[in-house]
Design brief:
The chain folds into 3 domains: about 120 residues, Rossmann fold (3-Layer(aba) Sandwich); about 230 residues, ANL, N-terminal domain (Rossmann fold, 3-Layer(aba) Sandwich); about 100 residues, 2-Layer Sandwich (GMP Synthetase, Chain A, domain 3), CATH 3.30.300. About 0% of the residues have low confidence. The protein has about 500 residues and is an alpha/beta fold. α1 runs antiparallel to α2 and α2 packs across α3. It comes from Planktothricoides raciborskii FACHB-1370.
């Protein structure tokens, strides 16, 4: 057997490619787990759930599973009973790897029932299936089916677009999300350095600390020259860095700051420009193994407000509901073909449409348009669109207007059912201070939004329910808004 990925790990460790974590420990974990799989069933690898927040355990286990060509399902350690039940409704694993998961062992497949027919076989032979979760923010968890080939195709498009041969990644995002996983894959496969830090908040604390005592995190930071690294952030993380001048100045030293995971707001982007942060806003998703559209930092600093150009490994079409291509500045559905495109969703794989040449095409849950320069602009999600009194309203526009008031720290606009309007706009917001009220916000919006776009409900909260990538959990948000509305006296709009 050719132990290609284990051999690559050994080679990379000799090159000292890791910062902040122990490569030798990872290699030992990978060897141990690979042997465990081989001893279990060499001819019939079982399905593995990998649920571990520890980066050394995660990478070691991941490499072992890929080497053994086992179907591996990445799981979020923060999932609760409801999320796990969704997963086990259609997945019976043979192995579960992770800490504090004893309560999940009851879902393991019993040895007597582990037949070959139960295994996951729709993939091409000699490829490991890598299932990456998506959709948790919408309330329905699904696993996209990737392979080593789709993930490395994303890397190839990335390196060609940025004109680099090695990718040095400074990772503060969880590896069990595609945004964190791809940072590992980029550095591992291109000969670059991977620096992993457990929390961006810890970095902020170190940067702002006046203590002379050198702690481990501070030591690692001192060993890294940001000018040679890519760092990936979500908007909420970027916002925290820009709140403190010393942190913003440190961030501005990075060669490129990739921004994704959730839509950024205009004020955040403008503040990043003020600090001369070399930001690269991206558009992509789990289905495409991260970004397929990116704005280069030079264009961002010059004032470009778009998501940028399509990366070399992808093709994007803007179409109407009938699938007909639309022209420049015409808003439509975003249809994607890419070498990095997932094979489908587990378990059926038949979830993406086929074009005339039988190549798979994915229709994103987003609306956008190409401008005259070939840059893509994202308008908002189709599923988030609010139809109130027969008028179409995109939450992003409402949220942007509310943010410009300077009265909120965070906000999300959603639809609540309404007997008169069909849907009514509700703004769930975090006030900047105690004096902020719905009345003060309404006054500020009079000249900023058309009347039909102004929220009919204002729901104050201490924080919005977001996941590690900064995405809103809309199911939780809807429940919060509904509970608030039911607690209010009945009024007539």
């Amino acid at each position: 057997m050719n132990y290609w990925i284990l051999s690559t790990l050994t080679t990379r460790n000799h090159q000292g490619w890791l910062k902040g974590i122990d490569g030798q420990k990872i290699e030992a974990i990978a060897q141990q787990k690979f042997q465990e799989i081989s001893d279990r069933s060499p001819d019939c690898p079982g399905k593995i759930i990998l649920c571990d927040a520890d980066p050394e355990q995660f990478i070691g286990n991941f490499i072992a599973a890929v080497e053994a060509k086992c179907p591996i399902f990445l799981a979020n350690p923060h999932w609760q009973a409801q999320e796990w039940q969704q997963v086990f409704d259609y997945l019976q694993p043979d192995i579960i790897w992770g800490n504090d998961l004893a309560h999940l062992q009851k879902y393991l497949k019993k040895p007597a029932t582990a037949k070959k027919s139960d295994q996951f076989f729709p993939l091409p032979k000699n490829q490991a299936a890598i299932m990456i979760p998506t959709g948790g923010s919408s309330g329905k968890i699904r696993f996209t089916i990737h392979t080593w080939e789709t993930l490395t195709a994303s890397v190839s498009g990335f390196t060609e677009y940025f004109q680099v041969s090695k990718v040095n990644s400074f990772c503060v995002l969880p590896l069990y999300h595609v945004s964190g996983l791809m940072q590992f894959i980029r550095s591992f496969t291109t000969g670059g350095t991977l620096a992993i830090f457990p929390s961006y908040k810890e970095i902020l604390n170190v940067l702002n600390s006046e203590s002379r005592e050198v702690i481990p995190c501070q030591k690692y930071l001192q060993e890294i020259n940001p000018e040679n690294f890519f760092i990936s952030l979500v908007p909420t993380q970027l916002s925290r860095f820009l709140e403190q001048a010393i942190a913003a100045d440190w961030l501005s030293q990075f060669a490129t700051v990739l921004l994704g995971g959730a839509p950024p707001w205009p004020e955040l982007l403008e503040k990043a420009r003020e600090y001369h942060v070399k930001l690269a806003p991206t558009y992509g998703m789990t289905e495409t193994a991260s970004q397929i559209v990116t704005l280069k930092p030079s264009a961002f600093l010059a004032g470009n407000q778009t998501c940028g150009q399509v990366l070399p490994h992808a093709q994007v079409r803007i179409c109407n509901e009938d699938g007909q291509p639309l022209g420049v500045n015409q808003i439509g559905l975003i249809k994607i073909r890419a070498k990095s495109l997932a094979l489908g969703y587990y378990p059926d794989m038949a979830s993406f449409s086929l074009c005339e040449d039988n190549s798979p095409e994915f229709t994103a849950d987003d609306l956008g348009f190409f401008d005259a320069d070939g840059d893509i602009n994202i308008v908002g999600r189709r599923s988030d669109k609010i139809i109130t009194g027969g008028e179409n309203v995109f939450p992003a526009e409402v949220e942007a207007a509310i943010r410009t008031t300077g009265l909120v720290a965070d906000v999300c606009a959603i639809a609540l059912p309404d007997p008169d309007w069909g849907q009514a706009i509700a703004a769930v917001y975090v006030p900047n201070h105690l004096t902020v009220s719905p009345e003060s916000l309404k006054i500020e919006l009079v000249d900023r939004l058309a009347k039909y776009k102004q929220p009919k409900h204002w729901v104050p909260v201490t924080e919005l329910p977001r996941n590690a990538q900064g995405k809103i959990n809309r199911v939780s948000l809807y429940q919060i808004a509904q509970a608030w509305r039911l607690s209010q006296p009945q009024t007539t709009n």
